[in-house]
Amino acid sequence: MTDALGPKPPRSRARLWVATLLLAIYAGFVAVVTLWPNPNDLEFGGISDRVLKVLYRFGVPEWFGFDEIEFTANIGMFIPLGFFLGLALPRRAWWLALFLVPGYSGFIEWTQATSLESRVSSMLDVFANTAGGYIGILLAMTMRAMIYARDRRIIARAIWERDAEILRAREHPLPQQPGRVQQPGRPVQQQTWHEPDAATRVFEQRPTWQDPRDAPTERLPF
């Protein structure tokens, strides 16, 4: 059976390689941001102040301060991480992301508590990072499910059109050419015959005329 079908087409690895590369790059970026020895060098305080001023201008209540924006930033920072992780993992192993995201966040907080004196670790940060990672995983799984459903519809449509063409060929077979001897034991190959369009009849027929004024004319449908 497999010999008749030919070699099995290889699986596409583009999603795996691209998602894994982006995951490694972004995980390194998160590690640099969260494990930098002196957070003042990153100037997050000045950025947070400017963001808060913009939010206050748009009517955000004043109780929304630095702690709230830091909590929100921790959620947003881990959304891409969870998204890339959800794309990189196989479909049957997506549940590993539920443990990898909090594990990576816990490793960051543990390193801050044991090795970085200028950093302050908090379980609230682990909760925020995990929530953001789970949001990213949900987005990745939703996108993969939508693409999978779309591909199934495309394949089903292609199979239907192929089967419909085979049925039309069986209902309207071409007559056997005169002088063609059918070899015994071999089935007759049936082909479909389509009426050529006007342009084909005019431009692809063999010219049997010499004078251009005797050329056949036909009104083209354009």
From TrEMBL:
Q: What are the Low complexity biased-composition ranges?
A: 177-191
Name the keywords, alphabetized: Membrane, Transmembrane, Transmembrane helix
Region of interest: Disordered: 171-222
Q: Which InterPro entries match?
A: VanZ-like
Q: Which residues cross the membrane?
A: 16-36, 71-89, 94-111, 131-149
The residue ranges of the VanZ-like domain are 24-143
Bias-annotated ranges (Basic and acidic residues): 211-222
Superkingdom field: Bacteria
Coiled-coil positions: none
Per the record's keyword annotation, is S-adenosyl-L-methionine included, yes or no? Answer: no
Protein name, UniProt field: VanZ family protein
Report the source organism: Microbacterium oryzae
Classification of source organism = Bacteria, Bacillati, Actinomycetota, Actinomycetes, Micrococcales
